Amino acid sequence: MKKLAPSILSADFTNLASQIEPIEKGGADIIHCDIMDGRFVPNITFGPFIVEAVRRISDMPIDVHLMIKEPDRFIHDFANAGADYISVHREEVVHLDRTISFIKSLNVKAGVVINPATPVATLDDILSAVDFVLVMSVNPGFGGQKFISYTLDKIKNLNSIRNEKNLDFLIEIDGGINLQNAAEVAKAGCDIFVAGSSVFRSDDIAQTCLKFKSILNAD
Fold it and tell me: For the chain, which domains are there?
């Protein structure tokens, strides 16, 4: 079953509870939280206190994507705040195996992220250790960007590696996902679909989630 993970980066923070309620009604599976520090990416979003607030609002799993410098310093804080998934960038983390092991030690699913221009080959030695791989299909830092088409090949590549080596990591995609391209990405082998503006800026959030779920699991 393929999962929909609406990103609250595009939600209305003046009343977050009213934004989360319709994604629950629409059958969304995961709440995605984009954490930016203004250093690793050119934007600043929020910290563990928002994740903690989301946890109080909803029982849905929370997926925390750390687009920050030195993420190891904050992993424990986000785990304590209620994160169920935490991912870190291959481009930033020097001792990746150590970081993945640390995340898992906190009883949290551990993921690694690659930017559009980062080759899948850089993950060869860590794929057996991670719970999921997040492929960025836009350059990280801002919501509402257009899907970068060549990142679809990364999904296909990861899916092939997973099948050939009999690995069980999930494949997640983030950036420019909408109702028009979701089916193609699903066919490529993706499991978790992060969608921000296409969900929260739609006329009917719950109906949009239902449409996404129908497309993702059409087979």
Answer: 3-216 (3.20.20.70)
